[in-house]
Amino acid sequence: MTVGRKYERDVDLLLAEEFFVNPEFAESFKLLTRFAGKRALVTDFWVSKSNNLGESDLIVIYKGADERCFALLIEDKVDANLQPGQAERYRQRAERDVKGGYYSAFEIILCAPVRYIEKNYDKLAGFDRLISLDQIAGLLDAQSNRRTSYRADFLKTAGTRRISAWRREDDEATNDFWYAAYKLASQEFPILEMKPLKLTKNSAWITLRPRDLPTMPKYVYVSLKGGKGNVDLTFKETTAFQFHQLIKQFLEPDMTVTQTGAAAAIRIKSPAFRITDGLVEGLPRVKAAFEAASRLIEFYRRHRAELNACANAATPEQLSWIGTEAEDQAGPTLNSVVSS
């Protein structure tokens, strides 16, 4: 096995593929759930499906002989902490999907290494079922072919600390650079609420989140991506194109909106910097980035209500039902979003 570190996203994609292209696996997994006695085939799936209630790692849709559908909503864990209320939000999202007619029944499942389940057992009561990655690996091993054996080994080792643990590479130049940046922020940019940093060698990407930036319904934070010269006010689970249409009247001339993975970011460009630039050349560029970050935080505070409402409206799943029928055809307007 040559994959040194395995992430939850890796497990999400591996399982999604197996459910969709491997009927034997899909049936074997179903036998571990409350739907064991129901004849059904997988017809669809979603990976990282988001709405204003959060994100589901994996949703697998089965359709029975009676044409009725049921869903397995799967939260995959490797080593990340369980978020407060995470299982309950899965249930709320599933109940919304039932009302929307996507499926008529569901089960909320946690898939994680045995060690993770044992360590966190008292916190997992909100899930309908706990299935270890070792159990899932056993389903793949039973098929006895090279591909499924590889995938079984992948899952078995996903929770192994020796293989999966990331280690920070300590570096004096990097430490000195960010200590100087921290002192600069403390003295000249208190709005950033920057804390001392311990970053791996040559890391020029940091995240800032003053205490008044929200975590729900959208997680909002500022990223400084030094190597690219990007300073981003980021809204998770947001579609950038739709978000831009709703907030463009507020944007300042040098602000743009861009998609960054599953998030939308209001971006200001700044001179790029690297640790290897050294303090004399690099610190003035960090100062420029801090100035941009401060502007973005002030911008958010001035337009907090509008930005929060528009980011919520630009959640991918919500775009089909926000606003009136006419607005659905042309996209929701700011007035309809803020008043809703």
How are the SSEs placed, and which strands pair?
Elements: H1 8-21, H2 23-30, E1 40-51, E2 54-64, E3 69-76, H3 86-99, E4 105-112, H4 114-120, E5 129-132, H5 133-141, H6 146-157, H7 161-164, H8 172-188, E6 205-208, E7 220-225, E8 230-235, H9 240-247, E9 255-260, E10 263-269, H10 278-302, H11 304-313, H12 325-330, H13 334-339
Parallel strand pairs: 3-4, 4-5
Antiparallel strand pairs: 1-2, 2-3, 6-7, 7-8, 8-10, 9-10
Helix pairs in contact: 5-6, 8-10, 9-11
Structure overview:
- The protein has helices at residues 8-21, 23-30, 86-99, 114-120, 133-141, 146-157, 161-164, 172-188, 240-247, 278-302, 304-313, 325-330, 334-339; strands at 40-51, 54-64, 69-76, 105-112, 129-132, 205-208, 220-225, 230-235, 255-260, 263-269.
- With 340 residues, it is of the alpha+beta class.
- The chain has two domains: 8-164, Trna Endonuclease, Chain: A, domain 1, CATH 3.40.1350; 172-325, Yope Regulator, Chain: A (2-Layer Sandwich).
- It has a five-stranded mixed beta sheet, sandwiched between helices. Strands 6-7-8-10-9 form a five-stranded antiparallel beta sheet.
- Helix 5 runs antiparallel to helix 6 (146-157), helix 8 crosses helix 10 (278-302) and helix 9 (240-247) packs antiparallel against helix 11.
- Residues 318-336 have low confidence and may be disordered.
The count of DSSP E runs of length 2 or more, i.e. the number of strands, is 10
**What is the CA-based Rg, rounded?**
23 Å
CATH class call of the largest domain: Alpha Beta
State the separation between the terminal residues, measured CA to CA.
52 Å
Largest pleated sheet: 5 strands, mixed
Give the helix/strand class.
Answer: alpha+beta
Q: Would you tell me the overall average pLDDT?
A: 87
* Proportion of residues in helical segments: 40-55%
Number of helices: 13
Q: What would you say the CATH architecture of the largest domain is?
A: 3-Layer(aba) Sandwich
Q: What is the element string, with H for helices and E for strands?
A: HHEEEHEHEHHHHEEEHEEHHHH
Widest sheet: strand order?
Answer: 1-2-3-4-5
CATH topology of the largest domain: Trna Endonuclease, Chain: A, domain 1
Global geometry:
globular
Q: How many individual domains?
A: 2
